[in-house]
């Protein structure tokens, strides 16, 4: 019995997250995202691996304690995501939650993080509300947002002659916000918005939406969705022949979706991104290490890179504060410390929680230009972070008025 009891004690002491006493001896990070649905290949296990790599590269400790990474699948269900976050915060000693693609879930987790005085870093979330009216002193929005992508591409396409727009939009907070930002940029640049339709997450058949877009008289079809929905809608548009006389603009067409579309179809398309694996030696080194660890052998996208970089900066802030237990104090330290990492370079975090870094205008290569499986994009322009993201004075974040 004594041997069995001793063995059980040893196993418990080695296991991750074994009991509240053990949790108190760790800095515990939760990666909450879609691991089985439309966004699984865009964040999923890749974001978990990125967080683990960041902890390892930082040395495994912060605030004098070991750092542990846990993860869960929110299944793109708001109630599931909220319940996981509550369990993590109230029962499992999690100090900070990262990633959270799906803006409705991200907004709910941001509110709960403020209520529980924890930290939320939205490295996969898109809605600009996180640094606007829904900002909190416990939230940092790291990688991108709907304002930067919608406004940037909307303006660029109109300037290239794409004046008449119709939107196919995901019917949830992220899609609504992305359409709004792009539409405002189109109108401000002298273009017109002729209409829009909205679809459910995970839609398989876009035929009726594409027919409405075709009949609208628009020359630009703005695809205001994400993940597999973007790929499905753009593939079906090509099959319907819309690409012969319409230009498709995937407002959040990410690198991971391009192989599914194929370079023959996607070539020449322009996207905005704050990260690409082939920017410099630091990004290339990270991409190689990441690819060796992920089962699919994929290269990292911007949101997975955002998890890595934001975890590094979070751990620096925990060291500055000396503990992870006061989330508001940790976020304040994140804002005080300049950001500097091999993936996003130097930057800073504003009072509203918006992380500022450059965005790149990238163009999809043609098949003959691509030299390897992930050699997909080339940089055709750079936008300063201060110009890419919404001015703080326009966001209506209460923190900006203090």
TrEMBL record:
SUPFAM superfamilies to which the protein is assigned, alphabetical: Periplasmic binding protein-like I (SSF53822)
Keywords tagged on the record: Amino-acid transport, Signal, Transport
Gene3D superfamilies named in the record: 3.40.50.2300
InterPro entries assigned to the protein according to its UniProt record, in alphabetical order: BCAA_transport (IPR051010), Leu-bd (IPR028081), Peripla_BP_I (IPR028082)
Domain of life per record: Bacteria
Signal sequence bounds: 1-23
GO biological process, alphabetically ordered: amino acid transport
Keyword Transport: yes
Domain Leucine-binding protein, chain residue ranges per copy: 27-365
Pfam assignment, any one: Peripla_BP_6
Protein family (similarity comment): Belongs to the leucine-binding protein family.
PANTHER family per UniProt: LEUCINE-SPECIFIC-BINDING PROTEIN, PERIPLASMIC BINDING PROTEIN OF ABC TRANSPORTER FOR NATURAL AMINO ACIDS
Protein name per Swiss-Prot or TrEMBL: ABC transporter permease
